[in-house]
Design brief:
Layout (H helix, E strand, L loop, with lengths): L1 H9 L6 H12 L4 E6 L7 H10 L4 E4 L1 E2 L2 E2 L3 H13 L4 E5 L5 H10 L3 E6 L14 H11 L5 E4 L4 H9 L4 E2 L23 E4 L9 H9 L5 E5 L13 E4 L5 H9 L3 E2 L11
Parallel strand pairs: 1-2, 1-5, 5-6, 6-7, 7-8, 9-10, 9-12, 10-11
Antiparallel strand pairs: 3-4
Helix pairs in contact: 2-4
Length: about 270
C-alpha cells in the first residue's frame, strides 16, 4: 500500500486550469447544475466517481486528485470556484467528500451558490483510523451551519439515522444496480455436483477477504474463485483455489460472476472491478 501511495505521489499532477475551465464551460452549455467529484487513483474513488456519472450524466466535473489530495494549490482551487460562479450555475453538488471539499463548499456558499452533497460513505469506515471520521463530521458540521443546503446518502438506513441523531433532513439516493447481459466467456469446466464459490473482490481494507475465503472453504469440495493472489496460503489449499485477474473488463467480470453457484462479495457500488 505504501509503495502504491509513493508511486502515485511521484507522478502527481492534474490537467491545466485552462483545460479544466474549458470542461466547466462545456458542462454549462448543457446544464445549469454542476456535480464535482474526485478523479480515480488506482481503486481510490472509483465507486464514487462512477456513481456520480450515473447520477448526473453530462454534468460531472472530475477534479484531479491523487488518492485524497487535490492536484491543485488552495489558490488554484479558489480560482476554480470563481470560474464556476462566473458561469452562472444554479446548483453545485459535491459528490464524495475529500478534505478539500470543505473549503470548496464554503467558497461556493460565499458566492451565493446552493451547495448540495451526496455522501457515499458509511459509519463502519469511521473507525478505521483517528482521521477516518473527519469527512462525515465535516459534512454534518457544514449542514448544521447551512453551508450544505441539501444532503443525500446512498447507504440504506443512514439518512434515517442522521435525521434522528443529528436532526437534519437527509434525502435517500439508492442507486439501481443495472447488470447488462454479456455472453459467457471462458466457461468454467465443471463436473456434475461440483460447487463453485466466488470471492471476487480486491484484497484491501473493509473487504474481509480472508473470512470470506475461509467460509467458502468450509463447504466440502467447493472450488473457490479469487481475484489476484490474496495471501491465504496458510490453509494449504492451493488445489481448491482458482485465481483470476486482479482487474478485468466489466463484461468478463459479470460473466464470471454468473458462472458461480454463489458469490460472497457482490457489490456494484464498491471500487474493485465494477
Amino acid at each position: 500500500m505504501f509503495r502504491r501511495i509513493l508511486k502515485y505521489r511521484a507522478h502527481r499532477g492534474g490537467v491545466s486550469l485552462d483545460v479544466l475551465f474549458d470542461n466547466i464551460r462545456a458542462i454549462r452549455r448543457q446544464s445549469d447544475s454542476l456535480a464535482i467529484t474526485p478523479t480515480i487513483t488506482g481503486y481510490s474513488w472509483m465507486g464514487v466517481n462512477r456513481a456520480t456519472h450515473a447520477l448526473f450524466p453530462g454534468s460531472v466535473l472530475e477534479l484531479p486528485h491523487v488518492l485524497g489530495e487535490p492536484a491543485y494549490s488552495h489558490r488554484e482551487l479558489m480560482d476554480i470556484c470563481r470560474h464556476v460562479h462566473a458561469q452562472g450555475f444554479s446548483q453545485l453538488i459535491l459528490s464524495g467528500f475529500p478534505p478539500c471539499f470543505e473549503s470548496l463548499a464554503l467558497r461556493f456558499r460565499d458566492h451565493g451558490l446552493t451547495v448540495g452533497c451526496v455522501f457515499h460513505g458509511f459509519l463502519s469506515e469511521c473507525g478505521q483510523s483517528p482521521l477516518s471520521s473527519q469527512p462525515f463530521k465535516a459534512v454534518l458540521r457544514l449542514c448544521r451551519a447551512g453551508v450544505i443546503a441539501k444532503l443525500a446518502c446512498n447507504k440504506k438506513g443512514l439518512p434515517e439515522t442522521i435525521g434522528r441523531l443529528a436532526g437534519l433532513r437527509v434525502h435517500k439516493v439508492i442507486l439501481p444496480t443495472r447488470v447488462a447481459q454479456f455472453p459467457v466467456r471462458r466457461a468454467i469446466q465443471r463436473a456434475p455436483g461440483e460447487i463453485h464459490i466466488g470471492v471476487l473482490a480486491h484484497d484491501t481494507f473493509r473487504k474481509n477477504i480472508h473470512n470470506q475465503v475461509a467460509a467458502a472453504l468450509l463447504i466440502d469440495g467447493a472450488t473457490v474463485h479469487v481475484a489476484g493472489t490474496p495471501a491465504v496460503d496458510y490453509w494449504d489449499c492451493k488445489h481448491r483455489l482458482v485465481h483470476h485477474p486482479e482487474t478485468m473488463p466489466h463484461g468478463d467480470y459479470v460473466s464470471l460472476l454468473g458462472q458461480m453457484d454463489i458469490n460472497l462479495h457482490l457489490s456494484f457500488s464498491e471500487s474493485w472491478g465494477r
